[in-house]
Amino acid sequence: MKFEASHDFSSHREHLKSIREVWLNHPLRDDDIDEALSRVVVLLQPSIIFGLNITEYPFYSLGIPDSEEQVDPELVAALTHELTRLIDRHDRHFTVGLLSEEIDTAIKHLPVRRFASVRRSLRCFWNTYIDGRLERRGMAVHSLNDRFEEKIGTTRLLTGRYEGHEVAALSKVRHSEPHTFVELSLLAWIFPYYRAPEYRNPTEPTT
């Protein structure tokens, strides 16, 4: 796998050095993954939002805030997380035979009415699966509670209709492996993202 940086990325040299080190020391990297990613090129570019996106296979873009001039442990953890997502996209066991670009096509072809909520939920389940594997290999990750708050779109843990089942589903994804893209997609379909209402004590009167 090759790493390059766009010309408008002022701190690209330090970040290129760091992401190469992160990749070489990634706990899930092996010979099969190296072979699967041999043609992949990751372009680092300044972005307000941190994250990995497929441009056109085998090219990916990794957006990093240009204000991040120094690579601190938090950024290293974020790079490790996104590189795990890249590994998953090229792991035939996770993708069950789908190509990386076919995964994006599958997501984009979800019914319009549920597209945004299912896609966001899928990302949350996928993040949780990444967290669990990295945590078991000694890496610092987000807590399960962080992911649940991300999942329900609020900072409060509510006692709604589906939340007990959602916690159980997230916990299973976090604490077991392997899982597949199809499994995570099914969970996202069953538990789509929703923005939970503000918590109100049921004994309080309404106005």
Sum this structure up briefly.
With 207 residues, the chain is α/β, with parallel strands linked by helices. It has helices at 12-24, 31-36, 73-89, 92-95, 100-108, 112-136, 144-152, 163-175, 181-190, and strands at 2-5, 41-46, 51-56, 59-64.
Task: Give a structural overview.
- The protein has 207 residues and is α/β, with parallel strands linked by helices.
- The protein folds into two domains: 91 residues, Double Stranded RNA Binding Domain; 81 residues, no CATH class.
- The protein contains nine helices and four strands.
- It has a four-stranded mixed beta sheet with strand order 1-2-4-3.
- Strand 3 and strand 4 form a beta hairpin.
- Helix 7 crosses helix 8.
- The C terminus is likely disordered.
Topology:
Blueprint: E1 2-5, H1 12-24, H2 31-36, E2 41-46, E3 51-56, E4 59-64, H3 73-89, H4 92-95, H5 100-108, H6 112-136, H7 144-152, H8 163-175, H9 181-190
Parallel strand pairs: 1-2, 2-4
Antiparallel strand pairs: 3-4
Annotation keywords:
11% strand, 207 residues, 2 domains, 9 helices, disordered C terminus
